[in-house]
Amino acid sequence: MASLSLRHVTKAYPNGFVAVKDFNLEIADKEFIIFVGPSGCGKSTTLRMIAGLEDISSGELYIDGKLVNDVEPKDRDIAMVFQNYALYPHMTVYDNMAFGLKLRKTPKDQIDKLVQEAARILDLSHLLDRKPKALSGGQRQRVAMGRAIVRNPKVFLMDEPLSNLDAKLRGQMRIEISKLHQRLQATIIYVTHDQTEAMTLGTRIVVMKDGVVQQVDSPQNLYDKP
Ligand code: ADP
Ligand code: ADP
Question: Domain of life of the organism in this record (predicted)?
Fold first, then answer.
């Protein structure tokens, strides 16, 4: 859990294109923030700036009151889950989940404890020896989430995590994510095109267009207007 503060955050890519313009948002501890808006409106760019994968051109980003503009991604205590899973195909489920912890030189016995616990939460305990190609889409997505939760990050960024799944699995995973949010008490920022996901998961919804925040509101106010 963590609070985030984006103040006048702007992104101009090296080619001069301004993808995000004067983004202002205060995110409280444990909020579940949804980003919606047409393709190309700057949602992923904003997530990548929060993760530190993309420099902020101007403006400030604070996490728990600390200015993090110049903090390395690995030191931001943020985990990101993508729609294409980005699993390592040659590694087992176990090693995929352990990878980030190994990079951070976490002791082996602790890695084992964290991976086993995440596997239990995500119902992956029986699949730890498999390679990603021997998993279903939903299982792969759970591994991608497992890799994020083993680090127990303060903030989760999820970029259309369910968009490659069929409708039934999407419904199941939506419930999983909601439970995960409760259980981890994490702050989540979640990009989606799916109105059901936005309505059922979000505490607030940020509507973007052409790099600009158009509206920030509760799901009820945004979608339930008569
Ligand atoms: P969204 O996630 O809402 O689909 P993105 O943040 O991916 O939007 O992209 C926002 C805009 O920035 C798009 O017009 C995209 O083409 C542009 N863009 C993304 N990456 C780059 C880049 N590296 N250089 C220049 N323009 C980029
Ligand atoms: P390394 O990659 O350093 O050779 P290993 O892959 O041999 O490490 O695994 C080290 C530890 O991780 C093992 O002692 C074991 O506790 C745990 N481990 C690895 N794979 C599994 C698995 N499929 N299920 C449960 N625990 C595992």
Answer: Bacteria
8-65 pLDDT tens trace: 999 999 999 999 999 999 999 999 999 999 999 999 999 999 999 999 999 999 999 9
Tokens of 171: 């419904």
Question: Is the shortest distance between the CB of 39 and ligand 1 below 6 Å?
Answer: yes
* Shortest-distance Cα residue to atom 5 of ligand 1: 42
Which residues does the chain have with pLDDT short of 70? 1, 85, 225-226
Cα 31 from Cα 33, distance rounded (Å): 6
The tokens describing 80, both together, are 């990101």
- Ligand 2 neighbourhood includes 128 CB (under 6 angstroms): yes
Dihedral sign from CA coordinates of 190, 193, 199, 201:
negative
Nearest CA to ligand 2 atom 5: 95
ipTM of this complex > 0.90? no
Ligand 1 within 6 A of CB of 11: no
C-alpha torsion sign, points 166, 171, 177, 180: negative
0.95 exceeded by pTM: no
By residue count, the chain amounts to: 226
